[in-house]
Amino acid sequence: MTTTPVRPSQFVTRDGPGALVPTVSGSMLIPSITRIIRYLARESKAQKNFNQPDDDTGATGLHKFVIDDNQMIRILRKFNSKPDKPFENEIQIFSLPTNAELRLKETDDVFRGYIFPKWGICNQHRGNDILMKFSQDRYDVVIRCPKCIQQGIPYKRGFPVRFVQACTNGHLQDLDWPYLVHGKSSCKNQIFSWKELGGDDFLVECTECKKSIHYVRGADSIKMRSINGRLFCGGQLPEMYPSFKSDMPECEKGKDGKSTARLILKNSAGLHTPKLLTSIFIPQFTGSLFRGLTRINKALSSFVEIIPDYTKEQLVAHLEKDTIRKRNQISNDTLFEIKDTPEHDLKKAIENVLNVMDLEEQKRTTQKGISEAEANDEELISLLEAAKEGYPPSDQATERRAFVNVEDIITVKSKEFGLTFRITPIKDIQVTKVQAGYSREIGSSQESDSTRIGKLQRQSCYHEENDIRWFLGDQLRGEAIFIDLVKDNADERGGIEPSVLQDNPNDDLKVWSEINKNVNDLLKACKKGTPEYDEAKLLSSNTNPVFVWWHSLCHKLMINLCVDSGFSVVSLGERVYCKYDERDQSTESGILIYTAARGADGTLGGLVSLVEEKFMEEIFKKTAEGIASCSNDPVCSEIKINQKKRSGACCHACQLVSETTCSYQNKLLDRNLVRGTLDGSYR
Length: 683
Known about the structure:
nine-stranded mixed β-sheet; 20 helices
């Protein structure tokens, strides 16, 4: 069995439980988080290193890879809560350990996927190929083709059949090829002949009884040979384990009373749509000393409470005691840095750690979980305050590193847009991403694309152990620029709505406003505190024309930033904010463009260095030109938004970026909406 390298960030954002990943051994199904952890702890070569206490901290198992992000924990708490019943168990986030962290070779496997679909095709023969189940060889997964054996040809791994069956409730299973071919026939043969007929059309024939099925795309002839023209859904979630039956709602039933499923290509994008939760905030402090002291904050708190007027020597002597070290997981590196730091600076650092500790504890005890929409609003308020006063505020910046300097903030008056943009460079941000669930968005072309089609599957994406619910996440450090709008003569916080949306109404604005109105009507019908309400609240924010305007502008800005800066688009991320206040019917908005990397040091400052007035003026000019015209016009500009779509005028030549860059799956875009606000360029 060969191994396939997977980056932790790739696993969290794109792959993860329930995803089908192409490998040299075939199509592999990623198992649940529980199965991954069990393999690490009980079966893998890394089980000794995984279970062994850390030399410095004494932590074992998942506790060695904990990600500390209280904001994300609050989001997950609300995400896992039921109506009128908050989630009360402890929630922890861990990062997927790498081979280096587990002291494994690069060729060793950290976790194992499972061959899916289990049916494959041997194509070593002219004419008809052979369809049969995969077998486990000593070193690989192969097809023990009888024709190959008969002809004395070494059998090979073949390739997986390209069809599976799935349903909108998240269930997934192999097609029952013997039943589809034989029906109620007494033939028990499970070896078939497969003949390609062009396109997606194919013919499958039993090698013994010669019964066959002929699939013609669009005609669904394969379904006609199943019961009453339907495919059974067995309610299976093979990512949990092969025979697992989920507790999801029952599948849609046909006239025969049987649950139904749909035929779907295994590489279809709708087969696995991750539910990605993201938390972004500006850290209060940084540095290895602060991080080391944070790990022993409880030991520091008890010591300072007993000896308020302590000396550095007393603290070191206390921390060096064996019982204290084992109980509080104090590392040698932290002790060395404490000894090497002047007493005044050390006491100031400890004071900062204890202040943050008190604040975090207050949040844990007094604040409930928050929804995605509420978290976005909190982020926007923090960013707007930082854009106005700096962060930390200028009067506090003498004692700690300033992540946002007021002197570095610039404003750009764009003649093309007729607006004044405020651009705030942020030197350090922390980004935490968690795949909290996934759905299989499988539906007919008649269904609207403006709402989620598939039911969200969550159970596979967490692991429960000792009253702790563990989620897999990825934490990055980096830099960002925050862009919002200000009025020329106003001394206000900013983040104002682009008023030109009202000054220059167009047909696209009217349609987006109508879509948003329909979502708001749905929101009013939902009970507060329910998952349906939280989902509708987030959708209400995202379908707001102000959001679409900023999102469309953001994509073109990122593309132009990459052209002139040397960044690749895939290295950038985005966050679009749109906070609507029903009381005064005002809107606060803005965008965050960031780049981040694994590790405590983050990135090298290449993004914030671009924040110069002349440079940004040129960027906005090019952005306006790129939005006003596209190389695919008039085809691109003639794409109109409607109630069944989630995007308007956009294509790969102008708006679309990589799926890892866009936080909204390249949806909620409409170039025409922004064109309508360009000063004199489009009416």
